[in-house]
Specification:
The chain is α+β, with helices and mostly antiparallel strands and 500 residues long. It is built from twelve helices and 13 strands. Strands 7, 9, 10, 11, 12 and 13 form a six-stranded mixed β-sheet that branches. Strands 2-1-5-4-3 form a five-stranded antiparallel β-sheet.
Amino acid sequence: MFRSIRTKLAVSYALIILLCLLLAGLGALILIRRYQRNAVLSQRHATAVTLSQRAQSLLALKLNLPEIAVRTRQEARALGVRALLVARDGLVLADSGEKDPITGQRLKFPIQELLGSRATAVVRRYLEADGQHYFFIILLLRPPPLEGRAEAGSLPSYLIVAVPEQDVEPAWRQLAPPLAIAGLVSLSISIIIAVVLSRSITRPLLAMTKASEEIARGNYEQVIPTEGQDEVTCLADSFNRMARQVARSRQSQRDFLANVSHDLKTPLTSIQGFSQAILEGAVHDEAGYRRAAQIISEEAARMGQLVQDLLDLARLDTGEATNKRTAIVSSELAQHCVGKFAPLAAEAGVELRISADKTLPLIYGDEGRLEQAVANLLDNAIKYTPSGGRVEIAIQALKLKDGRIEGRSDIPCALPFKGKPGDGNWIAISVMDTGAGIPKEDLRRIFERFYRADKSRSGAKGSGLGLAIAKEIVEAHGGIIGASSRPGSGSCFTIFLPIE
């Protein structure tokens, strides 16, 4: 029925306010009615007590029924009430009412049961004589014994003051129209406020709708203005962060495609050039053929490594590459990596060292993937360390509490993590080199895919995906990876892995 959320909010607010006003008004009328009824009945009860005392006095004087009836009628009319003198069996002996008196009739309700052991009672009953409801205030009289006197009829045992229901109700009925007018005025003001509130709530939502439509069209530079600290503002802030992230992701995709195209184009150009030279007969001797074949093989291997790295990243993104979980001795994992890279380090003239705590707890994860992450760090460290330099890998067990390391101060790297490791036990695997270092402005982007810092990576071969793959592997194991560096003094990369 209502298509816009603004209308739904305004109508829902108005209905809630209307319901509250109705409940409040109804409750007020009920309380006022009950209060006024009790006030009127209390006043009539006091009058009834006065009449009963006078009637009791007349009975004590041993006056006959006609005299008692006449005096009671006079006093009741003077006080403005209708009084009944009733015998023990419910017969009305006298009625002070001027209209439709019920003298000589018998009341239809059991007075003795209603009164019980009390001296007074108030009941609401229907009187058939005039077809109205009355509140009957019943008071007990104690007539003296007749002492053998023969009188026509009996003496009254009860004095009843009959209060018509309409005498009790008119006050609250008079209050109903003003209350209704006040309710309508309050409802009108509330509807206006509800409309204003609904607009304030839906304005950011409409802005988000328009911004999302613009993003769908490819315009990612969308910012929703926010103010306040309510949930809608938080939603708008989240949308702005999402839009920025989408823009960065879109830009990363463009950069990714450009980098992949560039990295594939270079080896493809070499392969195509040398294969074409062979086909056209530009190569004449065996040495030329061997050199062309070697270059084609190297460039094909380079392309294969790039494709493999891309496949690894795709599998890591989907969570399919770290499903295996086994107990791992971290020192053995690092020693195995060092053994694989020892020939490469020796060829580059780089000293390769390893140091580890004597006792290290087990870690759990995919051993092959964790070894790949450490190997990528070692590969980078050796590539960017000049001949005569040193690369060292250190494995330590740490306990963190309140963001601080407990019990030791020989941590090789001070890492500026964005998200620091939480409290608990960790294994830290650090890879340090004495290379040229990484400029500060490049550190925050060093783990991005295909990112290369020109000063720190000039002349190095690779796909530019090694650190990105290492980061994905470590985070898939619940760990954190970080880097620190001082240009000219080398770099340090550390992997934190949780001890389960």
